[in-house]
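Repro case for the chain-ordering regression, as requested:
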Amino acid sequence: MILPGPPSIPAFDRNFFTGQERFTAIGRGSLGGKAQGLARMLSLVGGTLAASFQPDIEVCIPTLTVITTEFFDLFVKQNDLTDKALSDLRDDVIANSFQKANLPAQLVGDLRALIAQVKTPLAVRSSSLLEDAMFEPFASVYATKMIPNNQLDADSRFRKLVEAVKFIYASTFFKDAKNYIRATRHATADEKMAVIIQEVVGLRHGQRFYPHVSGVARSHNFYPLGHAKPSDGVIDLALGLGKTIVDDGVAWSYSPAHPQANPPYNTLDDLLSQTQSEFWAINMDSPADYDPINETEYMRKYSLGDAEKDGVLRFLASTYRAQDDKIVYGITEPGPRVVDFAPILKFDLLPLSRLLRDLLNLCEDALDRMVEIEFAMTLDEQRGRPAQFAFLQVRPMVVSAAEVELRPEDMEENDVLLASEAALGNGVREDIRDIVYVKPDKFNVHHSEAVASELEGLNRRLQALGLPYLLIGFGRWGTSDPQAGIPVNFGQISGAKVIVESALPETSSMLSQGSHFFHNITSFRVFYFSLSPFDKHRIDWEWLSRQPAAWEAEFVRHVHLASPLKITVDGTAGRGVIRHG
Amino acid sequence: MVEKALNPFDAAQFQLDRAAEWLGLDLPTRELLRSPMKEHQVLIPLRRDDGTVKVFRGFRVVHNDARGPAKGGIRFHPQQTIDTIRALAMWMTWKCALLDIPLGGSSGGIACDPHYLSLREQEQLCRGWVRQLAHELGPRVDVPAPEIMTGSHHMLWMLDEYEAIYGERVPGFITGKPVGMGGSVGRVEASGYGLVFALREALKELNVAADGMTASFQGFGNVAQHAGRLFEQLGGRVVCVSCWDQKEAIVYAYRKESGIDIDALAGITDRFGGIDRNKAEEMGYEVLPGEAWLTQDVDILIPAAVENQITEEDVASIRPRVRIIAEGANSPATPAADKIIRERGILVIPDILANAGGVTCSYFEQVQSNMNYYWEKDEVLGKLDVKMTSAFHNVLKFGKAKKLSMREAAFAIAVARVAQACKDRGWV
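-- result from build under test --
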């Protein structure tokens, strides 16, 4: 089933919660990609799917209105912002200029009327035109601002809403957005922004407001680990607002086909060190600083202890029992908490996995491609059920346009730098000319911390130059144990777009297959190659050593090639090959 | 009959009488509301630039201040009469009441033609007017504002004189001041934008989109220019505007079927809204007799000049296509013409509603001035839109419920509110 297009959306009638329509638009322009996606799903989500999960889960699209792109055009034009917006000025300078400008006269009345009757938190989200036209995901490219909207007087609430809308407009012209648009071979000047104003699903606990569960579900998993298959899809869950997953890269990741299986952490220590320890919520108190150009002005991180005090953790967490070195379900005994959603995933408190599978299938059918959805959920505070499931967003998954199919013989050709039968990701990259590798003749696990330090500096320089690179190293990347690999955090190698982990030269230990980084690898769509000592494929070190060094230190060497590498990963077969051409 | 109807105060009293009759107001209340509560006429001697002295007549009339301090404009116009001022003051009372603004109604002015006065002479007139009337004015008594042929610089001279007399800074004494000197952002656009906010709601009521709608304006001053711009942004097209040509002492209409470029036309317009005819012709505009604005084959007519411009004699020339008349001017149609317009089924957004954006924003300015804290433009225009839209729907709903025209409904609501305030105070 492919839907022809979004239904026509009724005009906002100045009754946000009390009107007949819960999905409305202000203006005659485009809804932008994000809102178009939701509009397409409007009838499907609210139909038989919602009915089949009642009374356990109430499925909805939270009330929203969309400021269409015509107001973005007017705003930029009337305030003469084009030159400044398209300049190389810093993000904060652009954001401040936008704050000083005035919204179009025919828009402010609707916003004023909306805010006069709404006193609960609002999410002000981007919904850009190119996102729709390209039918490509722009996740996290533009800003989203959460506002508590709980001030007593309507004037204050109105001002905060207006500031948030202007901030979203400004984010169209932030550096990251411009770079992204450039990379997709479009021009920022062609971009237009619609803005979604949406009710935030969550509950207030004292001075914080948050959903109990946020999640991102993908219909295809190009980073299958453990027993998971690519076609099973993958779900990331977190406590609190979804920013934890999308920006922090922290989540409980699982296959909806195997909801009871833990993510592939190597040890309990790994699990404990990487489980969610903080969560994002809307700060309903006065913010520390007035800062309208800060995306997180009204957001704060809280500790798990706060969630426990709020009484929400008992439906979401387990406990580490140190004396037995094991995880016990529930939070009845003291000990470190592990946010593993066990009551939901392992004890079927709610049919969440089934709902997500159905929803992913529905969205895939409707959009005729692999999809990614975002959602949030609140649970009954006393019993955990029923729950309210808010469908927040659907977008196509990032999949390379190229057809990727690697045959075994493709991995044997003369120009192969390296190949792997255990590669994660999917697609083709032909934009990488830089290789950073740990010198095999110098590497020793005793020096792994020094290696990490050299890598960090080089990563910073390459990032400043905007050069993505291929990173080759030994042992487990990101391990906390320096004896097992190179103890970097993701930020120290964040410019690497392709990461290769090769078995340690002197050991035959199992590789991590990226599990330490798997959230980041997934989030940033990094290709990840594992080369075990038993692999028939080898790295062509000789070719690599023949290339002149652009920079070299004791353990690390950087090579800049005249022509780009051709890097191909067949996500379905799990094969990958890198050719130097 | 025709002569009588052309007296604006007669027209205003006629409107009141009808509303009072419908409301069943008692005689003392009718008597109180039929006439201004206070009237002042003053003489202002002015030493002109050539050394001669000329004496000008000034006015200030408070119609009713039961709902709050009086509020009203100051008009510089050679044909100024006390009856015009009385009518304007009464209409201001109704506007404030209809928009539910806690103010009464007043009006004032000087019978003069600023086209023939230097800026120094105008300043001296402003200061003279304040000196004569200062004891009757003030932020808690009566608050003046700009009107025809007065602007922000006139208001600032008046403020300066008032503050000199009282020896303190009183920014809430007057509205329409320059932004940065106690003025409110959005004040300049407010009258025109307010009209279009009401027009937008009227189009929704008729279930027609603004896209492709055409309009003809009488006048090309502040109200028409800003209303025209916003109307275009909604998707409409202004095809004709008319204005007074000072050189030839005649009114011309300027037409372009493809749509008037308001910014370009404003660029060849003097500060009184007079368009340079020769330049307009060079820009490809058809120049027509002044009354042609009324006879255009358009969807919307917007009279935005002065009173009594649509009369019983010329009302028949309104084309059948016209569906809405939005009254940017005060009482632009005589009662007889209004009756015919109503019979033709044209939706009229009455003056006390359509042009109330100006006084609404004046009220916002006064609030800001009294606090000495100023809002952002988004806030001013957002509040203005909500006020205008809410007032429009109140009138529409009331009219439908009581089977009244928009004008009758607007007057009934406004007069009832003022009458109630007078009763609550124990005046009647």
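Ordering looks correct now. DSSP finds 15 helices and twelve strands in chain B.
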